[in-house]
Task: inverse folding
C-alpha cells in the first residue's frame, strides 16, 4: 500500500508528463527521466512474442534530448498536436528505490486542417525512481495495442 | 468517392511520347488503372513476397497475407513443403484463415465447414451426403474440382514468394544474377526474427516504389545525419540496375580511409562515427562485410525492398490498400548466430528507420504530399531527367533517377502502356 502522499506525487508525475507533450514543451520531456533510463515503444504483438525490436528505443536521457533536437531541427512532418487521455494508475513496490506502475492511455492526434483521430492506445509500464528529491522515470515501456502507425511517429508518446 | 475520382479523365490512357522521363499523375489517381494493376501486375508474371520462412517453420503453420488486394495464405504441409492459396473458400467465398498466424492440421471455413488440406485441396464438407437421406450435394459433385485457388511458390533466402502466373521465371532468373547474389549476401544465412511493425502511408503504392529507388532525395529530405554532423566519411556510392530494369541496388561504401594501413595496424575494424549526438550509442555499429558497403537499399518489382543500413537489416513489404493508401511492413531480422551485443545494436538502430526513424520518418509523409499535390492534375506529369534519360546503372553517383525510370520501364511493359 502506497502512502497517499507518494501516490499523489506519482499521479502528478503522470499528469505533468502528458501535459508537457500535449502543450508542446518537448524540451522538458527528457527531464522526466533519470540520466540512466529506458524509453521504449513496442507493439503488443512483438511484446507478447518476446521479440526485442521496438519502434523506438532510447537508453539514456541524452538520446531523448537528441530526439527532441531532431524533431525541432531535422525531421520534416506536418504540424500536429497530441491530446493524452490517461487512466488511473496501478502501482506496486518494485524494490531498489523504485515503484512499478501501469497506466493505460489514448493519444488523439489533431492535424492542422482539423482532422482528428485516435493515433495510439496502449499502456505505460513504468519503473519510477522514488529515491531522489524528484520522481523520475527509470523506465517507461510503452506497449501499443496496434502494430500499425499512421503516417509517422515523431512526437513522443 | 472523392471529387478527384469523379473528375478523373475518362479518355484512354496514353503514355507521354517522352517515355520514362515523364510520369503521368493519373497513374496515382485512376481507379481503373488501379484495378488493372491488380490483374496485370499482382496476378501477373511477378513474384510476390508472401512471408518469411520463419513465419511458417513447422508443419501445419500458416501465415495470412495479401497479393495486391487478394487475401492469400501461405502454409507448410506435413512433408515440409510450402504452399500458398487464395484465402477464399471455394464454396461461398468467405475468408478461410482469420488469424495472422497459426498452426492447424487442416484449414476449415467456419461458414459451412468446408475443409481443406494444407495444400489447399478440398478434403471434406459438412452434410455432403445430406441429413437423414435428404439434401446433400448432387451425385456428380466432384471434390477435386473445388479447391482453394493455388499460387506457385518458391522459397529464396528465407523469403517465401508466390505467383499466379505460369509465365513467371524462377526467382533467381526473375531477379537476375547480380540482384540474387546481393540478396544472398544479406539474407543467405539462418535468419532470426527481431520484430515487425507496419505503417500506413497515404499514397498510391507506386509512389513508395519510386521513393525506394530515389537516391536523389536522400540527403535533401533526410537531414538527420547532417544536422548532427555525423561524419564517417562514407563515400558516395552508386546504383546498380538489373538487366530487366525492374529491380535495383543503391549503396554507399565506407571510405577507403578506413582500409588504410594505420587503421589495419590499429585493428580498428568497427565503425567510428563522430557526431554532435548526446546519445552516441545510437550509432554504435560494427562492420559486417568485407566489400565495404555500409548502406544498401535493394528494391524489387513490384512491392518489396531489403535495406541493410549500418547493422539494421529489414525486409520491407508494401501492400496497396486502395489507390491512395499503402501499408508498409517493416520486418526486422538478424542472424541466428548474432551475439547478444550484436542483437542489441540492431535493436538500437531501429531508431534510424521505420515509422519513428530519425533518418527516414519523412518518407511516411512525403509521398502523401505528392498524392495531394497532384490531385486534380491527372492530365499533368512528373519530370524525371536527373542523371539522364535512360535507366542504366550508375557506379559513381547517386544523383540520378535512373532506378525510378527502371521501375517505370517494367511497369509499362507489364501494363502494356
Result:
Amino acid at each position: 500500500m502506497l502512502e497517499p502522499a507518494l501516490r499523489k506525487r506519482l499521479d502528478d508525475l503522470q499528469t505533468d508528463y502528458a501535459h508537457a507533450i500535449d502543450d508542446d514543451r518537448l524540451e522538458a520531456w527528457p527531464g522526466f527521466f533519470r540520466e540512466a533510463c529506458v524509453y521504449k515503444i513496442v507493439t503488443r504483438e512483438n511484446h507478447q512474442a518476446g521479440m526485442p525490436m521496438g519502434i523506438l528505443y532510447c537508453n539514456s536521457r541524452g538520446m531523448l534530448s537528441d530526439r527532441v533536437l531532431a524533431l525541432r531541427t531535422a525531421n520534416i512532418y506536418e504540424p500536429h498536436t497530441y491530446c493524452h487521455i490517461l487512466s488511473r494508475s496501478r502501482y506496486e513496490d518494485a524494490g531498489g528505490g523504485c515503484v512499478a506502475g501501469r497506466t493505460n492511455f489514448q493519444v488523439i492526434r489533431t492535424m492542422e486542417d482539423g482532422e482528428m483521430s485516435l493515433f495510439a492506445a496502449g499502456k505505460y509500464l513504468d519503473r519510477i525512481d522514488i529515491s531522489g528529491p524528484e520522481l523520475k522515470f527509470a523506465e517507461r515501456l510503452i506497449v501499443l495495442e496496434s502494430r500499425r502507425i499512421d503516417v509517422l511517429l515523431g512526437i513522443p508518446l | 468517392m472523392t471529387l478527384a475520382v469523379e473528375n478523373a479523365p475518362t479518355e484512354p490512357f496514353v503514355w507521354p511520347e517522352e517515355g520514362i522521363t515523364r510520369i503521368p499523375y493519373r497513374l496515382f489517381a485512376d481507379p481503373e488503372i488501379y484495378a488493372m494493376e491488380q490483374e496485370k501486375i499482382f496476378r501477373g508474371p511477378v513474384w510476390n513476397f508472401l512471408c518469411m520462412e520463419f513465419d511458417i517453420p513447422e508443419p501445419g503453420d500458416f501465415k495470412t497475407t495479401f497479393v495486391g488486394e487478394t487475401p492469400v495464405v501461405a502454409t507448410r504441409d506435413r512433408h515440409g513443403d510450402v504452399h500458398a492459396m487464395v484465402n477464399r473458400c471455394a464454396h461461398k467465398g468467405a475468408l478461410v484463415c482469420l488469424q495472422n498466424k497459426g498452426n492447424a492440421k487442416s484449414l476449415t471455413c467456419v461458414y459451412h465447414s468446408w475443409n481443406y488440406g494444407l495444400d489447399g485441396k478440398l478434403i471434406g464438407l459438412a452434410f455432403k451426403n445430406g441429413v437423414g437421406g435428404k439434401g446433400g450435394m448432387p451425385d456428380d459433385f466432384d471434390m477435386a474440382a473445388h479447391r482453394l485457388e493455388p499460387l506457385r511458390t518458391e522459397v529464396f533466402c528465407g523469403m517465401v514468394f508466390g505467383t499466379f502466373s505460369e509465365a513467371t521465371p524462377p526467382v533467381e532468373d526473375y531477379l537476375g544474377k547480380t540482384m540474387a547474389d546481393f540478396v544472398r549476401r544479406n539474407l543467405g544465412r539462418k535468419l532470426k526474427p527481431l520484430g515487425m511493425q507496419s505503417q500506413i502511408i497515404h499514397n498510391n503504392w507506386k509512389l513508395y516504389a519510386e521513393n525506394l529507388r530515389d537516391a536523389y532525395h536522400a540527403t535533401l529530405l533526410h537531414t538527420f545525419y547532417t544536422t548532427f554532423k555525423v561524419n564517417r566519411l562514407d563515400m558516395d556510392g552508386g546504383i546498380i540496375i538489373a538487366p530487366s530494369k525492374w529491380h535495383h541496388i543503391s549503396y554507399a561504401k565506407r571510405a577507403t580511409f578506413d582500409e588504410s594501413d594505420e587503421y589495419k595496424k590499429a585493428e580498428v575494424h568497427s565503425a567510428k562515427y563522430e557526431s554532435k549526438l548526446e546519445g552516441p550509442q545510437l550509432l554504435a555499429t560494427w562492420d559486417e562485410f568485407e566489400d565495404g558497403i555500409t548502406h544498401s537499399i535493394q528494391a524489387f518489382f513490384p512491392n518489396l525492398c531489403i535495406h541493410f543500413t549500418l547493422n539494421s537489416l529489414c525486409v520491407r513489404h508494401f501492400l496497396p490498400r486502395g489507390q491512395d493508401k499503402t501499408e508498409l511492413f517493416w520486418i526486422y531480422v538478424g542472424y541466428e548466430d548474432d551475439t547478444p551485443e550484436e542483437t542489441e545494436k540492431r535493436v538500437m538502430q531501429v531508431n534510424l528507420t521505420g515509422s519513428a526513424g530519425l533518418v527516414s520518418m519523412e518518407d511516411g509523409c512525403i509521398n502523401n504530399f505528392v498524392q495531394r499535390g497532384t490531385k486534380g492534375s491527372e492530365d499533368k506529369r512528373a519530370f524525371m531527367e536527373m542523371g539522364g534519360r535512360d535507366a542504366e546503372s550508375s557506379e559513381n553517383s547517386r544523383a540520378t533517377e535512373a532506378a525510378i525510370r527502371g521501375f517505370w520501364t517494367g511497369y509499362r511493359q507489364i501494363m502494356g502502356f
